[in-house]
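Appendix B, Record 12. Input sequence as logged:
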Amino acid sequence: MSYTVKRESFDSLASCWANPSHSLRWNSLFVLPIWLKVWWQELKAGAELYLDAIRQRERVIGIAPLLVREGRASLIGSADVCDYLDFVVAPGRERDFFNVLLDDLREKGINRLDLRPLRPDSTVLTHLVSIAQNRGYEVLCRPEDVSLELDLPSTWDEYLAILTAKQRHEVRRKLRRLAEAGKVDYHFVEDSVAVHDAMDAFLKMFTESRTDKAVFLTAQMESFFRSLADNMAEAGLLRFGILELDTLPAAMVMCFDYNDCMYLYNSSYNPRYNSLSVGLLCKVLCIKESIQEGKKRFDFLKGAETYKYHLGGREVPLYSCQITIK
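Logged structural output:
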C-alpha cells in the first residue's frame, strides 16, 4: 500500500477533527487541535514543528503532533500543563502509521523520540513500543507519575456508596457545615463572555490560595491559561464550576467537558473560607453536577493528591518512553 507524509497546520488538523470520515481516535483532551495550537503559540520555546499526517490516498490514518529540538522529537505539550499525550491514529491502522512515521523520522535525521507523559492505553505503549523493538531500536519505558479517575455512577447516592464510610461521613459533614455558614450556590459557567470574567476571579484566588501556585503563575503561564480558556470556551469545551457563599465566589474549578468525561484541570479558592473546606467541596459539587448531567467519567488528572483518593479516584499509572531510532 502507498502512503504519503504531508505537513499539516493546526487549522488543517481542526478540519480532520471535524471530519468523522477519517475515523481518527482523538483519545484525550490534550491532543485536540485547539489545545495543541494554544500550547504551541504560548509555550513552544524555539522548538521546530513536526506536524505531519500520514495518508493513504486522501484518507488520514494518523497524525504525529511532534516538536523537534536538536534531533530529538517529543509530543507537542509539556508535563506541567498537559497531563498525558499521544499520537492520533485511526483504530486498526496503528502498525501502518508507526512504520511509515519511523521511516520518515529517520530520513529527516531525527534519531530519538522522547515521549511523555503516557497512559497505559496510549498508542505509544500499546503499539509503537513493540514495533520499535521489532525493528531493533533501543526502547526505554519508565513509570513517571500517576493520574486518578473515577467511573461515575448514575446517581449521587450511588456515588456516596462508593466511598468508605469515613469519607462518606466527612463529605456529608462538610456539606452541612457549609450550608450552615450561609446561602450556598454552585453552578457552571461556560459562555465565552462569562468565562473571560470568571478567569479573572479564578486567577486571583489561584495565586492567593497557595504559594506554589503563585510562583507557578508566571506572566507566560497566565497568558497560556487565558488563551486556553478563551479558545476552549469558544469550542464549547470549557466549564468553570463556581461555589458561591452568600453570592461571593469561595472556590472555583476549571474543567473541560469532552467525550462524556469531566476533566478537573485546576482549582482555586478564597483562603478566607479555608475553614469551611471550600476547595474540596467545590470539587465534590462538581462531581455531583457531572453525575446529574449523565457524565460517564470524572478525570482528576495527574498527581497523587490525597483528596483524589478520598473522593473515590483510582490510580492510572503514567509513563515516559524513549526510543532511539537507528
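The chain has a mean pLDDT of 96.
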